[in-house]
Design goal:
The chain is of the alpha/beta class. The chain has 3 domains: about 5-30 and about 45-125 and about 250-430, P-loop containing nucleotide triphosphate hydrolases (Rossmann fold, 3-Layer(aba) Sandwich), CATH 3.40.50; about 130-245, Domain 2, N(10)-formyltetrahydrofolate synthetase (2-Layer Sandwich); about 445-525, Roll (Formyltetrahydrofolate synthetase, domain 3). Helix content is about 35%, strand content about 20%. It contains 20 helices and 25 strands. The strands form 6 sheets. Strands 1, 2, 3, 4, 5, 6, 14, 15, 16, 17, 18 and 19 form a 12-stranded mixed sheet that branches. A hairpin with a 4-residue loop joins strand 14 (about 255-260) and strand 15. Helix 7 (about 130-150) packs across helix 8 and helix 7 packs antiparallel against helix 11. The longest helix has 23 residues, at about 130-150. It is globular.
Length: about 550
């Protein structure tokens, strides 16, 4: 089969004004970025239509290095629904350069179920990531300058919480020292870098309701504590307006198209293992304004992305998903069933049955949120009919709808079964009103305990002394009502990346806490998860190149 980028190159694209016109957006309302990409103003959002239309979440079993294929399913489902006569739009996150050049490669779907132009989406796109990076680092520079310029007046920081960010995997930047050398180089202090998807600015961009809300949130960003013990925020420096200027265009969602010219909004890109893992609420609401059905995804497995989608994004934006699609594959299930990685493409009914326990746990969790669930089986060439039937019968016993997705190979035609199942399930058994995992007024400890025990299946939560000190600070600031965003490995329900399946008898240790007053959430860092990833031994960058004809190769 052709590579993703070959398929993308060969797919004819419609002018973006025509794609907008199909949604009912006048050409004069969009800001084109070339021929096939455009910014769409968020003022077009119609909240009455948002409430009327149907939101579908695509999530997955616990991911493995073999991959699961949520984005391909999300795009494929939109294609399939349009093929059966439904007005469906997909809303996705923007890829980060970190995984694109690191372990994962491109993140715009795959095969004949992609969002296009995939090379632009996977690279610089409309500059949103660069705007977030610049805005974040501008705050860091302005803070350093404020400390330097006001030190003779007695101003000093007891603690600086704001790091820098870069959209590149670079372990060497996790811990650094700034301001070395001459006195005029600034105040020497320890610092570090996170990856741009972990930036609080990215979270704010994805949670802000409009430009006014964006400014309010930026002003409230906590930068650290002054020498006299007072919180110091962006608003205290009087520079929130400048940061909003840098984010002015980035705030508007991006409109593109799929391999079958279905409209797609691609906007924002927080990771679900270190942030809240959802595309922007603005893009989702804009899609719901124009699409009768909107398909969106949350990063990694349902224990991370879906949990944060419900407890953070839906909580803060009043969204009510009509259905959740849970994606699974035989190779992923077999890894969770204890089958060695080198053998997962071979038939193994016993390993598959054991791995289905991971699927069961996610189904139970999603039902706990009040969600109606269907399972999407992502088919690969090596899958056997017997294994697929085993999974189908297992889901039948659970009372869960089951459909095979083959959109990777066949485009929308390969997702019609899934599309019909999704539509019929929404019509006959839609999700109940959303049931959240914890109440706003619960303590930080209670919220962490609720997620760890109810979602992960942990025996409880422990907190390091550093985390305890941050909880004291949170309580003193009166912000314990914020939702929690747990940063942990994506490869396990536990904080041990090698504990596949459904681990038991473990506790979640919170070693540190990051206070996001602008994003209005509390990030709990579990285990050894890093907010700045490193590159693998053989990064994808080794396979990315320009052809003699000047075309990009190796993004997938």
């Amino acid at each position: 089969m052709k590579s993703d980028i070959q398929i993308a190159r060969e797919t004819p694209l419609l002018p973006i004004a025509e794609i907008a016109g199909r949604l009912g957006i006048p050409a004069g309302e969009i800001a084109p970025y070339g021929h096939f990409v455009a910014k769409v103003p968020e003022r077009l959002i119609d909240d009455d239509k948002v409430r009327q239309h149907k939101l579908i979440l695509v999530t997955a079993i616990t991911p493995t290095k073999a991959g699961i294929g949520k984005t391909t399913v999300s795009v494929g489902l939109a294609l399939g629904m349009n093929r059966i006569g439904k007005n469906a739009v997909v809303a996705l996150r923007e890829p980060s350069l970190g995984p694109c050049f690191g372990m994962k490669g491109g993140a715009a779907g795959g095969g004949y179920a992609q969002v296009l132009p995939m090379d632009k989406i996977n690279l610089h796109f409309t500059g949103d990531f660069h705007a977030v990076t610049t805005a974040h680092n501008m705050i860091a520079a302005l803070l350093d300058n404020y400390i330097y310029q006001h030190r003779d007046e007695g101003f000093a920081m007891r603690e600086v919480l704001w790091k820098r960010v870069l959209d590149i995997n670079d372990r060497n930047l996790r811990s650094i020292v700034t301001g070395l050398g001459a006195k005029t180089n600034g105040v020497t202090m320890e610092s570090g870098f996170d990856i741009t998807p972990a930036s609080e600015i990215m979270a704010i961009l994805c949670l802000a309701k409009d430009q006014h809300d964006l400014r309010r949130r930026i002003e409230n960003i906590l930068l650290g504590t002054t020498i006299d013990g007072k919180p110091f925020r962006v608003g205290d420096m009087g520079v929130a307006g400048a940061i909003c200027v840098l984010l002015k265009d980035a705030l508007h969602p991006n409109l593109v198209q799929t391999t079958e010219q279905t409209p797609a909004f691609v906007h924002g890109g927080p990771f679900a293992n270190i942030a809240h893992g959802c595309n922007s609420a603005l893009a989702t609401r804009l899609a719901l304004t124009y699409g009768d059905y909107v398909i969106t995804e949350a990063g990694f497995g349902a224990d991370l992305g879906a949990e944060k989608f419900f407890n953070i994004k839906c909580r803060k934006n009043g969204l009510q998903p009509a259905l959740t699609v849970l994606v699974a594959s035989t190779q992923g299930l077999k890894l969770h069933g204890g089958v060695p990685e080198k053998e997962i493409k071979e038939p193994n009914a016993d390993g598959l049955r054991e791995g289905l326990k991971n699927l069961d746990r996610h189904i139970r969790n999603l039902r706990g949120f009040g969600q109606s669930v269907v399972v999407c089986f992502n088919r690969f060439a090596f899958d056997t009919d017997d294994e697929i039937e085993l999974c189908r019968l297992h889901c039948k016993v659970l009372g869960v709808g089951f459909a095979v997705n083959n959109a990777f190979n066949e485009g929308g035609a390969g997702a019609e079964e899934l599309a019909r199942l999704v539509v019929s399930t929404i019509e006959t058994k839609p999700s109940e009103p959303l049931r959240l995992t914890y109440a706003d007024d619960a303590s930080v400890e209670e919220k962490a305990e609720a997620v760890a025990t109810k979602i992960y299946g942990a025996d409880g939560v422990t907190f390091s002394p550093a985390a305890r000190r941050m909880i004291d600070k949170i309580n003193a600031m009166g912000i314990s009502h914020y939702p929690v965003c747990i940063a942990k490995t994506q490869f396990s329900f536990s904080s041990d990346a090698k504990a596949y399946g459904v681990p038991k008898g473990f506790k979640i240790n919170i070693r540190d806490i990051v206070i996001n007053c602008g994003a209005e959430m509390i990030v709990l860092i579990a285990g050894d998860i890093m907010r700045m990833p490193g590159l693998p031994k053989s990064p994808q960058a080794e396979r990315i190149d320009l052809t003699p004809e000047g075309e990009i190769d190796g993004l997938s």
